[in-house]
Amino acid sequence: MKTTINTYFKIALTINVLIITAVLYIQYFLNIKPCSVCFLERYPYYLSIVIILIYFINKKFENYLLFSLILISCISFLLALYHSGLELGFIKDSTLCKASTADYLNKDTILKNLENNTLPSCKNVSFKFVGLSLASYNILSSLSFLMLYCKVFLWIKKKKIAEMIRVNHAGERGAIKIYEGQLKALQLFNKDIELQNTIKDMRDHEFEHLNFFENEIVERKIRPTAFLPLWDVLGTVLGFGTVLLGKKATTLCTSAVEEVIGEHYGQQIDILSKEIKEEKVLKEKFVKFRNDELEHKNTAENLGANNDGVYFILDSIIKNCSKIAINISKKY
Predict the structure, then answer these.
(1) Are strands 128-129 and 132-133 parallel, antiparallel or unpaired?
(2) Hey, which residues does 278 pair with through a beta bridge?
(3) Which among 4, 235, 305, 307 counts the fewest CB atoms within 10 Å?
(4) Do 247 and 192 touch, CB atoms closer than 8 A?
């Protein structure tokens, strides 16, 4: 995504501020009084500015903030359409333009700001630019904002899916490299045939997972992480090294890595269940793969994996390094 979501929000913020600045200039410097509907049409822009600023302060609730912007743009578009209908005579009467029903606009404040002059009729066009009224321009701007926010909303979903597939592809490939490193060391230094066969079975599961994500990367045109060569080397070294430390370290490595991967799959499944419900096939695959990873963890524990004594240090190192690799692979 060459143009980032942040860039689009910066553009939206700038345009919202410019629009509000322009209408205030028309009111106070050109001395062209707005009607009561004109005042109403400003509020969506004020709210949008506030929401976008909140987004830049804290992106934790970006989905809710973006949905709010979409809703506000819809309201703004309907108000502008209503106002244009009044101006063109399609709507014959408007309770919003009657002074007796303008209390919700804080009439005292409005009248004070307008130096106690009467608000103009909503049907009269008091200002035009290049032949169009401000209500007409508001239709265009509101519709443009609505399309922009919808596009960003879809992009956020696409971005999250891309991050999931990218990091899972890296994780499954890394797990394979760990198992291959362990197998090489076992074949050279430890002829534990039973352990070798168990590791081969778990590696075959990972190949199934990896093949799925490689297909997804191609079909969805997702860029793999740039750190794949590094993860390949580190995974092989980790697998080979833990075998040299003994069977307990070997199984602990599997247990620690699979626990982190299982937790990460669980987080992704939660996102797919709540935010991206249309990705049913992807969710089903993640559930299956998570079950496979947890099965690997249980297998390793049955073979003697635990973090007692000094193995607690090894367990912590492997888990923390795995989490760091996950965070890096999501973005790069």
Answers:
(1) antiparallel
(2) none
(3) 4
(4) yes
Helix then strand then coil, % of the chain, to nearest 5: 80, 0, 20
Which regions of the chain does DSSP assign to beta strands (E)?
128-129, 132-133
Cβ-contact 243, 179 below 8 angstroms: no
**3-state DSSP call for residue 128?**
strand
Q: Alpha carbon 224 to chain centroid distance? A: 18
Type of residue found at 224: P
**Residue 184's CB: how many other CB atoms inside 10 A?**
14
Distance CA 119, CA 102 (A): 10
Longest CA–CA separation in the chain, Å: 96
d(CA 104, CA 90): 25
Q: What is the pLDDT of residue 94?
A: 59
Can you spell out the DSSP letters for 239-267? HHHHHHT-HHHHHHHHHHHHHHHHHHHHH
What does each C-alpha distance from 319 to 130, 264, 310 come to in angstroms?
64, 12, 15
Buried b (16+ CB within 10 A) or exposed e, 93-113: ebebbeeeebeebeeeeebee
Burial of residue 229, with CB atoms counted within 10 A of its CB: 0-12 exposed, 13-18 middle, 19 or more buried = exposed
DSSP string, 217-238: HHHTTPPPPTTHHHHHHHHHHH
Greater confidence (6 vs 240) lies with 240
Mean pLDDT confidence for 89-105: 58
**226-276 pLDDT per residue, tens:** 999 999 999 999 999 999 988 889 999 999 999 999 999 999 999 999 888
Which residue do the tokens 């081969």 mark?
A: 200
Q: Provide φ and ψ at 106, rounded to 5°.
A: 60, 70
DSSP code for 99: G
